[in-house]
Amino acid sequence: MTTLYRHEPFTDFSQKENQEAFKKALKTVNKEWLGKEYPLIINGERITTDAKIVSYNPAKKDEVIGSVSKATKELAEKAIEAAATAFETWRYTKAEERANILFRAAASIRRKKHEFSALLVKEAGKPWKEADADTAEAIDFLEYYARQMIELSNGKPINSREGEYNQYIYTPTGVTVSIPPWNFLFAIMAGITVAPLVSGNTVVLKPASATPIIAARFVEVLEEAGVPKGVINFVPGSGSEVGDTLVDHPKTSIITFTGSREVGTRIFERAAVVQPGQQHLKQVIAEMGGKDTIIVDKDGDVELAAQSIFTSAFGFAGQKCSAGSRAVVHADVYDAVVERVVEITEEQITGNPESHSTYMGPVIDAASYEKIMGYIEIGKEEGRLVSGGTGDDSKGFFIQPTIFADVDAEAKIMQEEIFGPVLAFSKVASFDEALQVANNTEYGLTGAVITNNRAHIERAKQEFHVGNLYFNRNCTGAIVGYHPFGGFKMSGTDSKAGGPDYLTLHMNAKTVSETY
Ligand code: NAD
């Protein structure tokens, strides 16, 4: 019997003992976890290549977190073949057996929770709180999907007529290629790996090149928890070379991808091509970018609005698909909200996330830094700079939280995903106009409305077209099993990770009818 699912609690870092425990974990990681080399894993075999992908600390850009071997096209093909062979046995293992592996993996991560979070601080520049939430979410995916698989293992009820016995059951699909992003380097990577696994599929995991170390350690956890050889294969490699090979392979059945719109649409197109020898249509789960809006209504609470906008825009330096990078505010409260957001923002510390007092760490790498600084220059043309606007990449990739006011709804910085700490404010004259602006991008991932007007809440439920809509709170921070997550339009296939329908996307429904 499994207990009821409850999300993993967040660590209260206002408690001295928790602060001490986290500092200790940082020390352990600094001393014992950094600088190691990790091989590829194909059919349980460790393969070391000369070519490496090196992971660096974005807050201290010369510090090496670790390195992984880099797969070639041939090794990627070998991994798919291994996964295809392993599928023939794994597909028949009992759902409970697969689920138990996930429970064991969750327990193992929980035992070293702060060490894992400390690794996220180092590898992605996450402040403590964000790293702690990322690890908690990884645990949640394991706990939630394991329970969901047990529940689905008997299928769903359908009707039977006199003299027949009908069943509706779920069967695994095949080889799954899992391609995660670097920003939720633990949670999303783990989620899109274990969902197909627990559903009876075998997996080839190609981690994000900026954050392969957490993925290598997670695969070790899965192996220790009992995932058989060939069922999980680990193949870091270049997105364009290895990524295309994995996506195009005729034995690939599912591609589960989270990342940018650009790469997601490329995968979607390539997966549609039926390759010689391919006997099925590939399924693509693609969760992509966002340009998420917070609407503040004329009667909205100014303090709540400001706190919500600030948290949504600058949590993890705005590097979340759900980041609230655009605030659309009614003219009656506009000045007050802008002023308060600027005030809150300027009280916060940007710096090395190893320090507990840091609110915002660096952005992930040099390319991101350049891209975001480019958007800040565009912002200076398109709006009124009211805070930040500067960066410093001498030691790490630090950018001050940046706010532009009075930006036109069609401006670039109101339309394009920047994926950094840049917030744009637009003023509107009515709730109608606010909804129109909120819907005027190609994305449809998250959104929030700060209002005390019940009629406006009901209208937004119908007319604000996003996958995750929140009222009177921030638009980030979805929790597995509580806020199933996924977007509309160019934000993706709306798979709703952490939701009740998610695993069924990895399985074929089978109708079985016996006559007696
Ligand atoms: P990205 O698209 O650059 O990379 C994502 C993954 O795709 C990486 O593992 C990368 O190596 C791989 N890749 C690159 N080229 C490939 C190819 N040709 N074939 C196969 N794989 C390839 O995205 P990123 O920079 O890692 O992540 C940031 C993006 O992810 C943002 O757009 C963000 O909004 C989005 N994101 C979306 C969600 C969501 O749930 N909707 C969650 C997190 C991040």
How would you sum up this structure, described in words?
With 516 residues, this protein is an alpha/beta fold. It is 40% helix and 22% strand.
Q: How do the strands and helices of this protein lay out in sequence?
A:
Blueprint lengths: L15 H18 L2 E3 L1 E3 L2 E3 L4 E6 L2 E10 L3 H18 L4 H17 L1 H12 L3 H25 L11 E9 L2 E5 L7 H12 L3 E4 L6 H14 L6 E3 L4 H10 L3 E7 L2 H11 L11 E5 L4 E5 L5 H13 L9 E7 H16 L19 H17 L1 E4 L3 E2 L5 E2 L2 E4 L6 H4 L6 E7 L2 H8 L4 E2 L1 E5 L3 H10 L4 E4 L16 E2 L17 E9 L1
Parallel strand pairs: 1-5, 7-8, 7-10, 8-9, 10-11, 12-13, 12-20, 13-18, 17-18, 20-21
Antiparallel strand pairs: 2-3, 4-5, 6-23, 14-17, 15-16, 19-22
Helix pairs in contact: 1-4, 2-8, 3-5, 3-7, 4-5, 5-6, 10-11
Bound molecules: nicotinamide-adenine-dinucleotide.
The site of nicotinamide-adenine-dinucleotide has 33 residues, from helix 8 and helix 9.
End-to-end C-alpha gap: 33 Å
From the spread of the alpha carbons, the general shape counts as globular
What is the helical fraction, as a range of percent?
Answer: 25-40%
The mean pLDDT is 98
Largest sheet: 7 strands, mixed
Protein structure class: alpha/beta
Strand content: 15-25%
Hetero compounds: nicotinamide-adenine-dinucleotide
- Spatial strand order of the main sheet: 14-17-18-13-12-20-21
Extract low-pLDDT stretches: none
Instruction: Return Rg in Å.
Output: 23 Å
Number of helices: 15
